[in-house]
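Thanks for the sequence, V.! I ran Dihydroorotate dehydrogenase catalytic domain-containing protein right away. Repeating your input here for the record:
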Amino acid sequence: MNRQISPIAVSTALGLGGRGIFPYTLWPAYRRLRRTVRETGTTVFTKSATRHPRQGNFIPWNPLTWKYIRRLPGGGLLNAYGLTNPGAEASARAIRASLAAGFRVVPNLYPEFAKGPDRAIQETLEAVRIYQRALGRDFWALELNFSCPNSAEEIRQNVAQALACSKALRRQCPDLYLIAKISLCHPYEFAQELERLGVNAIHGVNSIPYDLVYPQGPSSPLADAGGGGVSGGPAFGLAYRYNAELRKKVKLFLIMGGGVTKLEDVKRYMDAGADAVSLCTLALRNPKEAAGIVATFAKKA
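Predicted structure:
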């Protein structure tokens, strides 16, 4: 079993199970991307699950909530998704099916610190046991999402909880490959402390709060939901600068992502010291370009 992260990874864009999101799966270019990802053994990070089912702002079967995901110019997306998901048990079943279909999938889990740190850590450990039972030896790595700008927690205030959660998880699962997905809003010292705790990899960065990307306005069309997070092209400049500086601060495996829209962006991240580069919004906005990038780096591997 391959227990390495591929040079190019696909993050969130293949859904909770890691093999596609409906209705994107009706799109031929997206299906070709799925096939390329599977055939090249590309690492897939799933959309975030929580221990128990969670209903956020976006509800797939309710058209009135579709407004919480919007396209932006320059290949961008704005979302206030709110982490809608059916929970860790459903996630584990979906991932097991994806593994059986030939995908290389790493679960992503969101600790719900808004419930209180003790309960969030307890539920995180419960979710890990669910993945262990469902996936067996195929559960070798876990990505922890510490960086959702659309949640009730303030990112700048969740550092202590995230460190406590990582410490508890490392204590319970000393051999599990832990990946922390962080935010541009996190101080670099957070990543350094995660490294000291024994986290194996950092994934920077998640979607960026709207007001940071557009400080001069206009106001976010999702202002009633906290403004939302920006991904894709408009986020690249900020994400690149943060990641390039982060590389100077940590020695552990660093997955750089945020704003990639073309091969040149990937090369800039690699030149900045990325050990791997993640594709997210590109896979939804331009899956043909994403498939080309995946194939290009698979040939080099």
